[in-house]
Amino acid sequence: MDLAHMLADARFYGAKSEPIDRVDIVSETPAGEARLLILRVNGRHLYQVLVDAEGRDILSESPELYLQAHGLPQGETRAIDGEQSNTSLIVDGQMVKVFRHLEPGLNPDVELLSQIADCPHVAPVRHWVTATIDDAEHTLAMVQDFVPDADDGWRYALGFASLDASFGAEASLLGEATRAVHEALAGAFPVSADAPSFRRSLDELVGRAQVLEEFSGAARAFYADLDDEVDVQRVHGDLHLGQVLRTADTYILIDFEGEPARPLAERRRPDSPLRDVAGILRSLDYAAHVAGADPAWADAAGAAFLEGYGIERTPLLDAYVLDKALYEVVYESDNRPDWVDIPLRAVRRLLESPQ
């Protein structure tokens, strides 16, 4: 079977800019007529797949085989369409998220959501599955409450943007929900102070995407005088419109794994809540571009989000927005090269305007 070809074509494979030179099978578990494999790619990246005799990944087609292999809840099962990094299954009112890219340590989705189950703006985690690989625990899957009758936040916002209709009231409500989640996390995990790591992040990102080299000097100047310590805590880490659900009454934040292109240890590090705020602002900009809306649509929605959250736009927040846009350039280069111009335009716009 050609596992390398299968991975290269898979939506969940997150290193598409890097050729696959080697695929090793780390573990193999029978799953009916299929096999549950943990693969090591290029000697570094771990992925879990469910393959048939031809080497096709069939997790979305035959999810019951995965559930049986791990003794997870059984029942009428379907896979959620459209996911990038993982595969989620709906099983009788619960959701089973299968983590495709595996890293040592407890996945932040499990770690955070299992501790703020009483927050009305999250779907609590009830159970999870781990495996020992290379003498370290890796999180394979988790079971959490399913949120029924909810709209995907990205598609919901695109509906407004495509009509150039105001998203202000919705953005304000999302700001309130985001603030409530941050307050819940601050109550469940330690809060401390630390200096932002903008320049360290810049060095890492420039090293991973050559296109960012031309912006390096201007970005360093942008980050000047932003070395004061800020309050840091556990945060979502990769918040955007695709990570929220619109219910009849409010917004629910989902997928607390952090930015998938960053190492797990970095994703678990306490950060400023402005990291998440910047993520929503950038996502609103994406929505405007994709829908062909006037740029003023994103500006107005962003202002309403900040009002709902309860903060004003500051140079520090703009620095987090720039850091997010730089990260997006790396992510899009690896996953959706046709989209890379969206964050590049944002980087240019931020660096050309006075702080």
Written account of the structure:
This is Trehalose synthase. It is built from 12 helices and 14 strands. It has 355 residues and is of the alpha+beta class. It folds into 2 domains: 3-102, no CATH class; 151-352, Alpha-Beta Complex (Aminoglycoside 3'-phosphotransferase, Chain: A, domain 2). It has a 5-stranded antiparallel β-sheet with strand order 4-5-6-9-8. A 4-stranded antiparallel β-sheet has the order 1-2-3-7. β2 (34-41) and β3 form a beta hairpin. α4 (153-162) packs across α9 (274-291) and α5 (168-188) packs across α10. The longest helix has 21 residues, at 168-188. The model has no long low-confidence stretch (mean pLDDT 94).
Kindly state the number of beta strands: 14
The CATH class label of the largest domain is Alpha Beta
- Across the major sheet, the strand order is 4-5-6-9-8
Mean pLDDT: 94
Largest sheet: 5 strands, antiparallel
Describe the global form. Answer: globular
Number of domains: 2
Strand coverage percent:
15-25%
Protein name: Trehalose synthase
Topology:
Elements: H1 3-9, E1 23-31, E2 34-41, E3 45-51, H2 63-70, E4 77-79, E5 86-91, E6 94-99, E7 101-102, H3 108-113, E8 125-133, E9 136-145, E10 151-152, H4 153-162, H5 168-188, E11 192-194, H6 198-208, H7 216-222, E12 230-232, E13 244-246, E14 251-253, H8 264-267, H9 274-291, H10 295-309, H11 315-335, H12 341-352
Antiparallel strand pairs: 1-2, 2-3, 3-7, 4-5, 5-6, 6-9, 8-9, 10-13, 11-12, 13-14
Helix pairs in contact: 4-9, 5-10, 6-11, 9-10, 9-11, 11-12
